[in-house]
Specification:
The chain has helices spanning about 1-15, 25-45, 50-60, 65-85, 95-120, 125-145, 145-150, 175-180, 190-195, 200, 205-215, 260-275, 285-295, 310-315, 315-335, 360-375, 400-420; strands at about 155-165, 170, 220-225, 230-245, 250-260, 300-305, 340-345, 350-355, 375-380, 380-385, 385-395, 425-430. By secondary structure, it is α+β, with helices and mostly antiparallel strands. The radius of gyration is 35 Å and the shape is elongated.
């Protein structure tokens, strides 16, 4: 076909887009040179930057409407590829088509950059119109097939467009459909509430309506989705308004990112930071966080294992660790659904009871905890008896300092240690 014929087709495609500063003959001369550079990029014999330079040349010739981008990309991806590969099955054509996607993306990016540069040199009214054209061009570029392939191929980013008049989805990419676990055809034409679920969009529905009305430019939300196959996903969704040069809302763009793995990692990191790595119980950090957030009355049971050093000395730390894990499991079960069991030291444990009703409930819980440790711990062929001292405190009014509260419970526990030889020796403190 040759560069001149391609340039003529390109000029025909651009005809009527704007009023250029050049004559038809001058336009074809310009486009012939650009075609030669772009064909070189498609062949791989010249750099990809030629696509950006070609776009800048169009802007300099007063082609500043987004339609010029979409029609130029069509010439690149259709006519130029066909010129180089009249037989799509011939060797090397797959590489040419792949390069065409990249060339089209660079062309669109170059057009955007050139528009920005030109806009800075114009008067205020021209600047406003040019920036609107940039935004318009960017939206069209995101909707183009070439731009999708260039930017989002293989990524977990979903994109959908929403009709501003009806509030219904008019197009989505494959990544979005994959997040929802349904084909794209099942999404197009649906309302946003139907796609995401009315419960998920509920809190943001007012903002969504403001977007449609043009009262808001953008909003962002995190939501959870349950796909048809039962798979649960966490989605970070942002929606933005795309306006025409007059400021009216043309459509909405939604961008969704699957953050399921990121949230799962954050949850694991939080769990690891707030739980004892040996026993799995809450650690000091989580215990004190819950303690400072709890409202009186609060019940506390502070346990210290008796003779645990001797267990480590007699059987070794491996056996000692297994004993601690069994003890922790028993205490967690005995604490019940209303109690938080935590390991706050080597052989020291504490149970927090939120909204502890009275002394009687505290006595009941402390009795359960001691009973849970009464049965020997079986480790292999060994049967190891684990004793414990316990101090309790019923807090009806929160103290000024947490240290004061912990000191009171600690004192009660050590009183219990010294009173264990006396009948009924169990110490309690009240705050």
């Amino acid at each position: 076909m040759g560069s001149q014929e391609l340039a003529a087709r390109w000029a025909d495609a651009l005809d009527g887009v704007v009023a250029p500063t050049l004559t038809r003959s001058q336009i074809e001369t310009l486009l012939t040179g650009l075609c030669e550079e772009l064909l070189g990029a498609l062949r791989g014999t010249s750099g990809i930057e030629s696509a950006r330079l070609a776009a800048a040349s169009l802007v300099a010739a007063n082609y500043r409407d987004e339609v010029a981008v979409s029609r130029s990309i069509a010439v690149i991806c259709r006519d130029m590829v066909a010129d180089l590969c009249p037989d799509p099955g011939q060797p090397g054509c797959a590489e040419v088509r792949d390069r065409a996607v990249t060339v089209a993306g660079e062309f669109a990016a170059g057009f955007t950059a050139a528009l920005r540069t030109a806009a800075l040199a114009e008067q205020e009214t021209t600047l406003t119109a040019a920036l609107a054209a940039v935004r318009e061009e960017q939206a069209q570029r995101q909707l183009s097939e070439a731009r999708f392939a260039a930017i989002f191929a293989g990524a977990s980013v979903g994109i959908g467009t929403i009709d501003a008049r009806t509030g219904r989805v008019r197009d989505v990419n494959a990544a979005f459909a994959e997040m929802l676990g349904v084909p794209t055809t099942a999404i197009v034409g649906q309302s946003v509430a139907a796609v995401l679920g009315s419960d998920n969009i509920g809190e943001a529905y007012g903002q969504f309506q403001q977007l449609l009305a043009g009262e808001l430019d953008r909003f962002r939300m995190e939501t959870s989705l349950t796909r048809q196959d039962g798979h649960h996903s966490d989605i970070d969704l942002s929606m933005s308004v795309v306006r025409d040069t007059g400021g009216s809302v043309r459509f909405l763009i939604g961008v969704a990112v699957d953050i399921t793995e990121r949230k799962a990692l954050a949850d694991r990191l939080w769990h690891d930071a707030h739980h004892d790595d040996l026993t799995g119980l809450a650690n000091r950090l989580l215990f004190f966080d819950r303690l400072t957030r709890s409202r009186p009355p609060i019940g506390l049971c502070y346990l210290d294992l008796d003779g645990f050093k001797e267990i480590n000395d007699d059987y070794g730390h491996t056996i000692g660790d297994r004993v601690l894990r069994v003890v922790a499991e028993r205490l967690g079960t005995a604490a019940g659904p209303d109690g938080l069991a935590a390991r706050i030291g080597g052989d020291e444990f504490i149970v927090l009871i939120e909204q502890c009703a009275d002394e009687e409930q505290l006595v009941t819980v402390s009795g359960r905890l001691l009973a849970a440790l009464a049965e020997p711990v079986a480790v292999g062929d060994r049967s190891i008896t684990v004793g414990a001292s316990i101090g309790t405190a019923l807090v009806s009014q929160y103290p000024d300092a947490v240290d004061d509260l912990m000191h009171a419970v600690d004192t009660a526990m050590y009183r219990d240690k010294s009173a264990r030889h006396r009948p009924g020796g169990r110490s309690r403190q009240h705050q």
